[in-house]
Design a protein that fits this description.
The complex is a heterodimer of chains A (about 550) and B (about 325).
Chain A: H1 2-7, H2 14-63, H3 65-69, H4 74-84, E1 89-96, E2 101-105, H5 118-122, E3 127-131, E4 135-143, E5 165-174, H6 176-226, H7 240-327, H8 330-361, E6 369-371, H9 373-390, E7 394-400, E8 406-408, H10 410-426, E9 432-439, E10 443-450, H11 457-462, H12 472-478, H13 484-494, E11 498-504, E12 508-516
Parallel strand pairs in A: 7-9
Antiparallel strand pairs in A: 1-2, 1-5, 3-4, 4-5, 6-8, 9-10, 10-12, 11-12
Helix pairs in contact in A: 2-4, 2-6, 7-8, 8-13, 9-10, 10-13
Chain B: H1 2-22, E1 32-37, H2 43-57, E2 63-67, H3 71-81, E3 87-91, H4 92-101, E4 108-113, E5 124-131, H5 133-143, E6 149-154, H6 156-173, E7 176-181, H7 185-198, E8 204-208, H8 220-231, E9 234-237, H9 240-245, E10 249-253, H10 255-270, E11 281-284, E12 287-292, H11 293-298, H12 305-309, E13 313-315
Parallel strand pairs in B: 1-2, 1-3, 3-4, 4-5, 5-11, 6-7, 6-8, 8-9, 9-10, 12-13
Antiparallel strand pairs in B: 10-12
Helix pairs in contact in B: 2-10, 3-4, 5-6, 7-8
The chains are: A alpha+beta (about 550), B alpha/beta (about 325).
């Protein structure tokens, strides 16, 4: 089976398999038929040759009677020559009953009969006495009268005529003609068989082509479908099976074409919808970008325009306070102080808004410098100490700067910590606020923990958005603009870091800042919202996940 | 046919008269049984003709016993039938063998067989198929009177007694009989070769004996006939086939007459006429003749129409 599999792998084409199988079969059949026929015919030829030899021997025997009777080979010369003139007879001899050679024609034979053997006396007619590779040796006894002359039962004689055995004849036939005939028969048979085998194969090729060509065409057609050609249809021709295949293929292709058409239609519809939606989105985006740009520009302009008169108010108010202090008008000073504080608050708010606008506009830059973390924390704690004491809170400060300064934008870091500490102090009453700042090789970590009001998970989800506090009542109760945490997140992001919150309502909150070190100027990850660039390029939308 | 029938009737009458005149105490005709081989043609016709000849000699019906090739049956059947028989005429080999095989002490006459005296038991007599030599010589002298010598090769076992007759007959006929003994065909062949070498045209004749060892039809006969033709020698025999093939003449049995002869012999034996021992076996004298006219013509023998009419068979046949 392995040899068959190797000779005829199942993956080769049907045409080859058929051709190979039938070719081998036809050639084997032709050879077998030739060999069988040649063998049979050779046997027949041999039989004929044997019969011819036997008859020749018998004839020669009959013609040798006189020669033996008269012991005269001259009497048998003609008979010997006549026997030798038979085809394939190459040697004849006449032996007396005493095994003496009377006549020998055709040279010395390969084999000479030993007539004194018992076997010879038992024989009545001619027989094939011996066969060599080259010759057939026939021996026939010679009787004094012909056997045909002896009547079985003559009623007129008391005893049947006696036929005496007077000698033997030996006829040798060469096998050359037999071999020649056998070779000729074999060659002819093989030739004829091969001729018909070739004819058969030629016809087979036509038949195979008739079967496989439609299959091949169908296969080619199927390949075309691989390239995505539609509307491919097979010609329904060839044998019944192939026609059925072509019919099924056509039905399948028609079904596929219909499905393709439907898909194309759906695709077209979808594309049109997507295109429409895209247009709408682009328009909406453009509008949003424009609005944002306008807002930022407005805010920047407004902040600038508002700070100028506000600085004037603050400046003049402080001058008046100083003059009132000189004049000793304490009641006026108090009012003026309120005015000045209110103005300062307003200025801070405007600064916050200005910072946010800068960040959104991508105009906020980092100024890196060595910062002593302990000093910075002390400075911020001093600023916030009043607010902490105001709500009867206890402040714990833990600082671990690793014994070395850190390269950081100090104002941004200060603002971050201040915002977080201010919020903790603001939303905690008679509680504990803990600030923990540490630095290692990978980054700076600052956490502000309080035991304040805490937040719900929903509130935690939006507290980093602009102008949002935990709820609207918070603004009323605690004040503030709702920009602090948004600015904090944006500043962290600007330095490649994050700020996260972990809070439980009624228990407290913990804000954690992680800033990977070293901070680089170019690492700003950009704005928290849509950043507006001054270039003409379309605005890039970079999202910073505050939770990251 | 009418003439023949008349002769037959006359012969019967003569026999009847002679029987009556010689009858001593014989009050009735002998009861005769004929043992004959039941064989297909052409033998059936031959035996039928012989039986017809026998029947012609007797007024009472014959007891015919056909013999098959089963000798035991033949013997048993014959034994039953032969109880009331006075004489047996045994025809052919089966007839002789059967007559010899049954317990029958009465006379037996044997015919239609090539016989030697040794073949006959004391109570047997017969007519052999070998033609009497004087008939040959008579025929020879009629046809070719210039022949001086007759050569004959014979098997002494079978034909010595005939040769004895022949020698006497030859002398009477005025020819020299040169006889050569041969016991086998090879000797015969050599003898014939020598005879043919020394024979002189029209002076020498060759007599072919019917015994098998002296001549065979396939090898020696053609040689003899060919040489005889070439050397203008007369060849004669007892086989009409030889005349057909080129012998000058052949003498062969007239079956009916032979039957009659057997009947007469049977009658004599049944009358207890004791024959001299020498006469127990008689050569055949009732013969017909065949001639080859072409050979005769080749030998320069001119036969008149009347002479030709004496021959029952004339070759070549028209």
């Amino acid at each position: 089976m392995d040899i068959f599999e190797r000779l005829l792998p199942p993956e080769i084409s049907i045409r080859r398999q058929l051709s190979f199988t039938v070719t081998v079969g036809v050639i084997c059949m032709a050879l077998a038929a030739s060999l069988t026929t040649a063998w049979l015919e050779s046997r027949s030829v041999r039989e004929n040759l044997t019969n011819q030899g036997l008859k020749t021997a018998e004839t020669f025997s009959a013609q040798s009677i006189l020669a033996l009777l008269f012991s005269s080979k001259e009497n048998a010369a003609d008979a010997a020559n006549a026997a030798l003139s038979f085809p394939n007879v190459i040697h004849v001899a006449i032996y007396s009953i005493d095994d003496e050679t009377l006549l020998k024609e055709g040279g010395e034979p390969e084999w000479r009969p030993n007539l004194l053997r018992d076997e010879f006396s038992e024989r009545n007619g001619a027989w094939l006495a011996h066969e060599t590779s080259n010759t057939l040796n026939f021996v026939a006894p010679v009787y004094s009268r012909l056997q045909t002359e002896i009547v079985d039962e003559s009623p007129f004689q008391l005893e049947a005529p006696v036929s005496e055995r007077i000698g033997y004849v030996h006829v040798v036939m060469g096998k050359a003609a037999l071999r020649e005939a056998q070779t000729g028969i074999f060659v002819n048979n093989v030739g004829v068989s091969l001729f018909f085998a070739v004819l058969l194969l030629f016809m087979l090729r036509i038949i195979v082509n008739r079967i496989t060509t439609p299959l091949q065409e169908l296969s080619d057609l199927m390949k075309k479908t691989e390239t995505g050609q539609g509307m491919v249809r097979a010609a329904v021709t060839g044998p019944d099976e192939v026609r059925r295949m072509a019919g099924v293929f056509n039905t399948m292709m028609a079904s596929l074409d219909e499905r393709d058409r439907q898909l194309r239609e759906q695709n077209d519809t979808l594309e049109a919808r997507v295109s429409q939606r895209t247009r709408e989105l682009v328009e909406a985006r453009d509008q949003a970008v424009a609005a944002s740009r306008h807002k930022s520009e407005f805010l920047a302009n407004m902040s600038h325009e508002l700070r100028t008169p506000l600085n004037a108010i603050i400046g003049y108010t402080e001058m008046v306070i100083e003059e009132m202090e000189v004049d000793g008008k304490e009641e006026v000073i108090s009012d003026l102080t309120r005015v000045r504080n209110a103005a300062n608050n307003l200025l801070r708010m405007i600064n916050d808004i200005l910072d946010l606008a800068k960040i959104e506009a991508g105009k906020m830059e980092l100024w890196l410098e060595p910062v002593d973390l302990g000093e910075l924390i002390d400075e911020v704690v001093d600023t916030a100490r009043i607010l902490i004491k105001k709500n009867d809170n206890q402040l714990d400060v833990i600082v671990d700067d690793g014994g070395q300064a850190v390269m950081m934008d100090v104002s941004k870091l200060r603002q971050i910590i201040t915002n977080l500490l201010s919020n903790a102090a603001k939303f905690t009453k008679a509680g504990r606020v803990t600030i923990d700042a540490k630095r290692n090789d990978t980054g700076l970590f600052v956490s502000v923990n309080d035991t304040g009001v805490g937040m719900t998970p929903e509130q935690q989800a939006y507290i980093f958005e602009e102008f949002r506090q935990a709820d609207m009542s918070t603004t009323r109760e605690y004040g503030g603009t709702g920009l602090g945490l948004s600015i904090t997140r944006s500043l962290c992001a600007l330095m490649g870091g994050t700020v996260t919150v972990d809070s439980t309502q009624g228990v407290g909150s913990k804000f954690t800042v992680k800033i990977p070190l070293p901070v680089s100027k170019g690492q700003s990850s950009l704005s928290t919202q849509v950043a507006l660039h001054e270039s003409e390029d379309p605005p890039k939308q970079n999202r910073l996940d505050a939770q990251n | 046919m009418a003439r023949r029938a008349a002769w037959t009737r006359l012969l019967r009458l003569l026999i009847f008269v002679s029987i009556l005149s010689y009858a001593h105490g014989v009050s009735a005709a002998p009861r005769v049984a004929v043992l004959y081989p039941d064989m297909p043609e052409p033998y059936r016709g031959i035996f039928s003709a012989i039986i017809d000849g026998i029947a012609d000699e007797f007024s009472d019906p014959l007891t015919l016993i056909p013999l098959s090739n089963d000798q035991k049956t033949n013997n048993a059947m014959s034994q039953l039938v032969l109880k009331d028989v006075d004489v047996i005429i045994a025809l052919g080999r089966r007839g002789l063998v059967t007559a010899d095989g049954v317990a029958f002490e009465k006379p037996v006459v044997v015919g239609a067989l090539l016989l030697t005296p040794q073949d006959l038991k004391p109570h047997m007599s017969g007519v052999t198929l070998a033609v009497a030599p004087e008939v040959y010589f008579s025929q020879l002298k009629k046809l070719a009177p210039q022949v001086k010598r007759v050569h004959v090769v014979y098997n002494p076992t079978i034909s010595a007694w005939v040769i004895d007759f022949a020698k006497a007959s030859a002398r009477l006929a005025g020819v020299e009989l040169l006889s050569y003994q041969s016991k086998n065909i090879k000797d015969s062949a050599l003898l014939y070769r020598d005879i043919l070498r020394v024979s002189k045209p029209m002076e020498d004749a060759i007599w072919l004996m019917p015994d098998a060892s002296s001549v065979d039809d396939s090898v020696i006969l053609p040689l003899i006939l060919k040489e005889a033709w070439n050397r203008n020698l007369v060849v004669f025999s007892g086989n009409p086939a030889h005349a057909k093939r080129g012998a000058l003449f052949s003498l062969y049995p007239d079956n009916v007459l032979m039957g009659k002869a057997l009947a007469r012999l049977a009658l004599q034996r049944s009358n207890a006429q004791v024959e001299p021992d020498r006469d127990r076996l008689r050569p055949l004298r009732d013969v017909q003749a065949a001639i080859n006219l072409r050979t005769a013509d080749h030998l320069g023998l001119r036969l008149s129409s009347e002479q030709q009419r004496e021959y029952t068979l004339k070759f070549p046949m028209p």
